[in-house]
Amino acid sequence: MQDLKPGKASLQERVSNYVQLMKPGIMVLLVLEAVTAMIVAARRDTNLFSLTYLAIAGILASGGSGAINQYLERDKDILMRRTDWRPVATHQIPPKSALTFGVVSIGLALIIAEIAFNYVATLMILLGALSYIFLYTLFLKARTKWNIVIGGVAGVFPALTGWAAVTGSIGIPAIFIGFLVFLWTPPHFWGLSMKFREDYIKTGYPMLPVVKTEKQVINWIVLASIPLFVFSFLPAVIPSLGSFGLIYYALAAVVTIPFIAVDIKMIRQPTRDNAFRAFLISLPYMFILFGAMIAAVII
């Protein structure tokens, strides 16, 4: 891919590059997770200004972490079809600029959280950023096939942030919401990494599909999805996890059924294409669950 020097890029292209630097796909999910936890905590008393501040802090923290991730992985990203277009890998954004952007963004997120909320919410944002950058990106990813499993703890902190922003503490429903993301991450990402197995071989990352056979990876995807399905419905029998009502369980069932169908198909036909279908099916899963939670507590 031909490099594009920053000085030759139009304003629109520069803005687009910085948006991509922030990993918008991940960012949107994590911000929605935080917003969901806030709404579940405050219910119909949710304050629009608080939601706005939380969303801004979440965008900055998640986007800043994504920028630092791309700075750290720029030499690996250029080797992979899935990531060789990223703005730092292609020098559309200079590495130092990406690093500065990431650090400043996270710093601004912490300032906003401290001013608008409390020190607990601020700490949760900080721990989320540090766990993604240091625990996952710098330590786990290049060292163990279970990187995405352990590193998935970073996905818990947005829910803790949203809950703490309202209550000043960490509540059990927030842990439930965050743990859903933790359980969802491995079956979601393993399907994607199986699709791009050759890319990960080039980078030297010991992702599960690199060190295991296709059939073994599919078995792990299916096994990892079972606790996710069970946990999604657990508040029905353990009310302390959250009171979501019929709307949530109905939509949870709707989004779980096709996921189970794909799992069954993978067991019968353990192919890379079917694993990628599981990834595609998993894409809307958390968005629908979060939307269902929000609807259940405000309607």
Rg, Å, rounded: 19 Å
What is the beta-strand fraction? under 5%
Helix vs. strand class: mainly alpha
User: Major beta sheet, specifics?
Assistant: none
**What is the helix tally?**
15
Task: From the structure above, extract its key features.
mainly alpha, 0% strand, disordered N terminus
Q: What this model shows, in words?
A:
The chain is mainly α and 299 residues long. The chain contains 15 helices and no strands. The chain has helices at residues 11-21, 24-42, 48-72, 74-77, 95-116, 119-140, 147-150, 157-167, 172-195, 197-203, 208-211, 214-232, 245-268, 272-282, 285-298. Helix 2 packs antiparallel against helix 9, helix 8 packs antiparallel against helix 9 and helix 12 packs antiparallel against helix 13. It is globular.
Task: Note the topology.
Layout: H1 11-21, H2 24-42, H3 48-72, H4 74-77, H5 95-116, H6 119-140, H7 147-150, H8 157-167, H9 172-195, H10 197-203, H11 208-211, H12 214-232, H13 245-268, H14 272-282, H15 285-298
Helix pairs in contact: 2-3, 2-8, 2-9, 2-15, 3-5, 3-6, 5-6, 6-8, 8-9, 9-12, 9-14, 12-13, 13-14, 13-15
Structure at a glance:
With about 300 residues, the protein is mostly helical. The protein has helices at about 10-20, 25-40, 50-70, 75, 95-115, 120-140, 145-150, 155-165, 170-195, 195-205, 210, 215-230, 245-270, 270-280, 285-299. The protein starts with 10 loop residues before the first helix and ends with a helix.
